Amino acid sequence: MEQKQKEIFQKKEFRYLLINILSSLLTDICKENDISQIKNNEKINPFISKIKNSITIKNYLGRLVKYTQAESSTLIAMLIYIDRLCEINNFIINSFNVYKIIFSSLVIAIKYNEEEYFGNKYLAKVGGLSLNEMNLLELIYLNLIDFNLYVSDEVFQTYYKNINSTINTIY
Fold first, then answer.
1. Structural domain boundaries of the chain?
2. Would you state the pLDDT for residue 42?
3. How far apart are CA 15 and CA 34, in angstroms?
4. What is the pTM of this model?
5. In Å, how far from its chain's centre is CA 153?
6. How far is CA 121 from the centre of its chain?
């Protein structure tokens, strides 16, 4: 990673812009998939909630980032993991599963990408899940993406450039 890129990642403003972009993207995906009424594969049921969450995706993601202290690079890895989940399993994100998908992918990204992180009990509390449910979702998610957590520099740079381009266009 270039020095300039490292400096950008360390700025809180960049992290907040990432939260805005990621939450906007996920909200749009949910709206589109909610309209089409596409049902998810039965094997992915643990991610489905019975009711829609009352907190916005932006506020939920903001809360997770605030209390986990997730780094900007981890948020990009989270997006890559969500894409992998969708690509490998033809997984459809909607309003009933997006929160557990966000949480699970962020927890996995934190554990893989960051040197220090909070324990599972704390992470579960921040995400609004029981410890058992968090552990189960993490294991299922890892299995669904074939434990493929490595992100090449090339893939990371592609996502970073697309996000940065979006930031420059919007802001």
1. 3-170
2. 45
3. 28
4. 0.86
5. 19
6. 19
